[in-house]
Amino acid sequence: MVLKEMSRKLYESLKDFRNKKIIDLTESPLIINDNDSISKIIDILLENNASDIFIPIGKSISAINIRDILPIRDISSAKIPLLGKRITALTNKDTIGQAARIMSLYRLRALPIVDEKQEIIAQVSAKEILKFMLKAGVAGSSTLKDIKMNAQNIMTPDPITLTSKDVISKARNIMTRRKIDHIPIVDPLDETGLLKGIVTSHDILAILSPSERIGRRSIGIDSSNRMQLLIEGLLTNNITISEINNPIYNVIDLLNNTNSTYAIVKSFNKVEGIITYRDIIDLLGEQIQEEVPTYIIGLPENPWDAEVAKSKFDSLIKLLKKMEPEIEEARCKIKLSDIQGKIKERKVYQIDINIITPYRRHVYTDSGWDLVNLFDEASDSLKNQIAHRRSERQRESIRYRKE
User: Fold this and answer.
1) Low-confidence ranges of the chain (pLDDT < 70)
2) Per-residue confidence (pLDDT) for residue 149, from 0 to 100
3) CATH class, 286-402 region
4) How far apart (Å, rounded) are the C-alpha atoms in residues 70 and 76?
5) CATH superfamily assigned to domain 151-281
6) CB burial class (10 A; 0-12, 13-18, 19+) of residue 242?
């Protein structure tokens, strides 16, 4: 109950912040042409320490993210129009809440801002939003400093880890498949999972650069062979670390001061979780009920579909709450993609649902044409997950009493 109340207070405290216009957070956009080379994109992203770049194509805009580039085997032959994904642009009249929702929907750290002619004039980034959150946290009667939630409450628990003896290609494949940008690296000889460093998508992007950019040692080694090198060659001792009880405001301040896109959450030298820009931006998602802190991001523009998503997810949480009263938070992210079929273009929904309890995070991901059917299947799967976990806890409790 304490965590629920803190989540409610946090959501309420960010109300004015969510409604703030993005015009105060704009910065120069990164733009390329669709006939530019992939090598040029890599150079621009690395030089600007950025993750996203935008391509105007007619009246629409596409974005290329680092994770779109990582799977490329031959940089010289890849075509930009095949990489980019069409995205929704913002205007100066849009709010931080709208920007956060779309960033979460497309898994981007920046979005373009356009004028009346649909020409890109600026961008807003997750980094600037975090900076603005720090300013908002100092002013007003209700501030981020007043909220007692900490790193443990917002982190992604039990992140995927690799060892320093794994090869770089393994990290690249995991990032591409799981759509993540950070993998903590642990000591292969330490059973407790002692943290040795971290590999980011930026680190791997640099490996894909021409040899002259990454040093003499790589001369004569093509990018595919570099991918077979050990991860330990990429590690740095400069790791951004947060203690598990660090307040949210301090976590955001830490990311800002270290110019880092992540913080590894540790407890007694053990990696407990990771916090990235995305975890903080997700705090700005739309809350749709109060009994359980419940958020839905990426509501469809179609009013009927949006109402279906809200009502179905609301019903799902009420049902799961009866099975598992200790649900602490529930999140749903919806993504809509256009698929070109034989007859006409069809729209495919992807839903990602996270149900967080004190014991574990229950996850469901699926895609399909029928939004109603997707939520019905999600309900069946999550009910089975929670029922199975409750059975496990009961067996553990019985064994404990016997002992």
Assistant:
1) 1-9, 11, 81, 137-147, 192, 210-224, 285-291, 338-346, 389-403
2) 78
3) alpha beta
4) 14
5) CBS-domain (3.10.580.10)
6) buried
